[in-house]
């Protein structure tokens, strides 16, 4: 059975020592979904929102969040990211914005937390900018979609989170 990595032998929380790990290319992809009312989706799609370009602001927020992940998540290593991409797919059938955040680096530890943080903060930014017209929006399906590199190699989610 796999062990939790942030606990020492006595069960105390600690930052994992990655000093002996090899530097490898690592990448992680996380996704999230923001569901909203049809009227809200229409405003967002048409760029008619009073606060401006919602998706551009959400993209910048997601990128900034990935860069600050170690300040937000206890015991998370501060990383020098090579790249952070936050992309959006407007799903008119579902009245939803599908968010994909991709982070990469050459380093000793993975970037899963950075990708998850980018996707979640982008989703929260969409919520914040649209809540005046739709407080009932729901953020769903936040999860790791894919991880590449490092000791454990390549992993891909078979299906969406429950």
From TrEMBL:
<comment type="pathway">
    <text>Cofactor biosynthesis; molybdopterin biosynthesis.</text>
</comment>
<keyword id="KW-0456">Lyase</keyword>
<dbReference type="GO" id="GO:0061799">
    <property type="term" value="F:cyclic pyranopterin monophosphate synthase activity"/>
</dbReference>
<dbReference type="Pfam" id="PF01967">
    <property type="entry name" value="MoaC"/>
</dbReference>
<comment type="function">
    <text>Catalyzes the conversion of (8S)-3',8-cyclo-7,8-dihydroguanosine 5'-triphosphate to cyclic pyranopterin monophosphate (cPMP).</text>
</comment>
<comment type="subunit">
    <text>Homohexamer; trimer of dimers.</text>
</comment>
<feature type="binding site">
    <location>
        <begin position="113"/>
        <end position="114"/>
    </location>
    <ligand>
        <name>substrate</name>
    </ligand>
</feature>
<dbReference type="InterPro" id="IPR002820">
    <property type="entry name" value="Mopterin_CF_biosynth-C_dom"/>
</dbReference>
<protein>
    <recommendedName>
        <fullName>Cyclic pyranopterin monophosphate synthase</fullName>
        <ecNumber>4.6.1.17</ecNumber>
    </recommendedName>
</protein>
<dbReference type="GO" id="GO:0006777">
    <property type="term" value="P:Mo-molybdopterin cofactor biosynthetic process"/>
</dbReference>
<comment type="similarity">
    <text>Belongs to the MoaC family.</text>
</comment>
<feature type="domain" description="Molybdopterin cofactor biosynthesis C (MoaC)">
    <location>
        <begin position="15"/>
        <end position="150"/>
    </location>
</feature>
<dbReference type="InterPro" id="IPR047594">
    <property type="entry name" value="MoaC_bact/euk"/>
</dbReference>
<dbReference type="InterPro" id="IPR036522">
    <property type="entry name" value="MoaC_sf"/>
</dbReference>
<dbReference type="InterPro" id="IPR050105">
    <property type="entry name" value="MoCo_biosynth_MoaA/MoaC"/>
</dbReference>
<dbReference type="InterPro" id="IPR023045">
    <property type="entry name" value="MoaC"/>
</dbReference>
<feature type="active site">
    <location>
        <position position="128"/>
    </location>
</feature>
<feature type="binding site">
    <location>
        <begin position="75"/>
        <end position="77"/>
    </location>
    <ligand>
        <name>substrate</name>
    </ligand>
</feature>
<keyword id="KW-0501">Molybdenum cofactor biosynthesis</keyword>
